[in-house]
Design a protein that fits this description.
Elements (H helix, E strand, L loop, with lengths): L2 H7 L1 H42 L34 H5 L14 H20 L3 H23 L4 H15 L7 H26 L6 H14 L4 H22 L11 H24 L2
Helix pairs in contact: 1-2, 2-4, 2-5, 4-5, 5-6, 5-10, 6-7, 6-8, 7-8, 8-10, 9-10
Length: 286
């Protein structure tokens, strides 16, 4: 029996493989979340220097492959055995093997989140084009959510390819039909663009960034326009709840900005996995 046949015939094996693969992807997502903003900043500095007619800054050799991962405190290179998702963190007690500096628990959390969601997607969609597409969507949402948390940026390097990938997949009707996907992309962008300008005209301040428009457009391209009200409602509800909690519990000022991208990402994943059922239940009320 071939591996593909085994994956198709055994849901348990498929879910196990998806979890293990998702853990490995989660380790890579940690690299993306950490390095992509630095790569963007390097590119911006080079472009600014070019516009100013000054010598560009000394190039840093940094991308998603090099340099090798190392401890930010002592520079100790992370070996293969120290880079096993989740397991290495637990074995090392959450500390660098060389200098014993505490390692952020966010690394294994992202790995575990990627693994668990990957297994759930495999259980939900099986071995299919929709299942493979859903995995890519979920991994992109994880990366975007944590990059936005760190930097308040949603990189075009992720949002724009994600948008086009959604349109291409739905050219074959994987998640919705192509007209719905195109309308979803357009309406997703315009919905938050309109909110942005209404808020700016009313207050003179910017309430959100253009990356949020593009992210909602990408979600619309993947899931179709009928999912947009649910995504907007869920993201607004989660954002309001967390914002109030930060104000009350963490005593965070009302003027402190809160990134909206993570809430859109969470809502997008919920809509991908259960949006049809939620919409059906909601419409049944009327």
């Amino acid at each position: 029996m071939s591996v593909v046949s085994l994956l198709q015939s055994s849901p348990a094996f498929l879910i196990t493989v998806a979890i293990l693969f998702g853990l490995a992807v989660g380790s890579f997502l940690n690299v993306v979340i950490l390095r992509l903003p630095k790569m963007m900043e390097r590119q911006w500095r080079a472009e600014c220097a070019e516009l100013a007619g000054t010598p560009p800054p000394a190039p840093e050799k940094i991308n998603l492959v090099v340099p090798r991962s190392r401890c930010p405190s002592c520079g100790h290179p992370i070996t293969a055995l120290e880079n096993i998702p989740v397991v290495s963190y637990l074995v090392l007690g959450g500390k660098c093997s060389a200098c014993k500096t505490r390692i952020s628990p966010r690394y294994p959390i992202i790995e575990a989140l990627s693994g668990l969601l990957s297994g759930y997607v495999a259980w939900q969609f099986g071995l299919s084009a929709a299942g493979i597409g859903a995995l890519v969507f979920v991994w992109a949402m994880i990366a975007l959510a944590f990059v936005d948390l760190d930097t308040f940026y949603l990189p075009d390097d992720i949002t724009l390819p994600l948008l086009w990938a959604g349109l291409i997949l739905n050219l074959f009707g994987v998640f919705t039909d192509l007209p719905s996907a195109v309308i979803g992309a357009v309406c997703g962008y315009l919905a938050l663009w309109s909110v942005y300008w209404l808020y700016r005209l009313a207050t003179g301040k910017e309430g959100m960034g253009y990356g949020d428009f593009k992210l909602l457009a990408a979600i619309g391209a993947w899931l179709g326009w009928t999912m947009l009200p649910l995504v907007i409602l869920l993201s607004s509800f989660v954002g309001a709840a967390i914002g109030m909690a930060l104000i009350v519990l963490a005593r965070q000022g009302r003027d402190v900005p809160i990134p909206f991208g993570p809430y859109l990402a969470v809502a997008g994943v919920i809509a991908l996995l259960h949006g049809a059922a939620i919409n059906k239940q909601y419409l049944a009320l009327f």
